[in-house]
Structure formats: C-alpha cells, structure tokens
TrEMBL record:
Organism annotation: Streptomyces orinoci (Streptoverticillium orinoci)
Keyword ATP-binding attributed: yes
UniProtKB keywords: ATP-binding, Kinase, Nucleotide-binding, Serine/threonine-protein kinase, Transferase
Domain Histidine kinase/HSP90-like ATPase, residue spans: 14-104
Protein's recorded name: ATP-binding protein
Length: 146
C-alpha cells in the first residue's frame, strides 16, 4: 500500500460528526483500508470528545496510511488531557479510551500540540517502526477532569 495522506481542519458540532465520518470512510475506502470500521470508531470517539469537551470545538483530523499502518491524529486547541472514567453497566459514556486501547492494541498517545493544545495519535494495523516509537514515548493519561 502506498503512502496516503488526508487532513481536515474544522469546527465541529454534533450535526457535523456524521458528515466527517462519511468523508473519512470515503477516504479509507479510496485507499483500500480493510479495517475501516475500527478506524471510524476511533475517529468518532476522538471527535465526539472534541464536541463534548473542547471550548470552541476547533480540531484537525489527519490520517496517514503507510504500508500496512494507519496513523490517525486528532489535534485541538485545549491542553487538558483525556481522562479514563470508570463506566458502569448503566452509563452511556466513559468507555472511549478503553475502546481505543482495545482497537489499537494500546498503540496510541497524547502529546502537547504546537500551539498549546494537544494531539492524540493512534495506530492501526501491522506493527512497524512507527508503532514502537509511539509506545516508547506514550504519555500516561492523567486523572484530571476533561
């Protein structure tokens, strides 16, 4: 698979989430990415967090497909890190980070963004040099409110 890149910068509201998912799916289909459902679940979780928690709701979505690895990056302008929340059996929220852990095999990290916000990087697919770099520099999720 060749090196492919995709990027969007947007201000999101709940109504735009569906459109962005459709755009991302079309791009992944165009690339022939076989695990589009997993990738779209990650994109949806990260963008939903922007809608729910980031003042102003500005973000960027970048996807890069190299060889057999898909790199998903969502950046926003808010420096507060995502927080794992315990989810009980009655809760409809609080499972996003656990789901991302499961889908990526814990190959994701949060890093400071260049303009004071944060970037969340997730990898899907076969293990590669980029994957070990992400694991080596992954920062722990802090226990502060989102």
């Amino acid at each position: 698979m060749a090196d492919h890149r995709f990027a969007l910068e947007l201000v999101l509201g709940p109504a735009e989430l569906s459109s962005v998912r459709h755009i991302a799916r079309a791009q992944l289909d165009h690339w022939g990415w076989g695990a589009a459902d997993d990738a779209l679940t990650i994109v949806n979780e990260l963008l939903t967090n922007v809608v729910d928690h980031v003042p102003g709701r500005w973000c960027s979505l970048r996807m890069r497909c190299e060889e057999a690895t898909l790199h998903i990056q969502v950046a926003d302008a808010w420096p507060r890190l995502p927080v794992r929340r315990p989810a009980d059996s009655h809760s409809t929220a609080g499972r996003g980070l656990a789901l991302i852990d499961e889908l990526t095999g814990q190959r994701w990290r949060v890093v400071p963004g260049p303009h004071g916000g944060k970037e969340i990087h997730c990898l899907l697919g076969a293990r590669c040099e980029d994957c070990s770099e992400v694991n080596a520099s992954r920062r722990p999720i802090r226990n502060s409110a989102l």
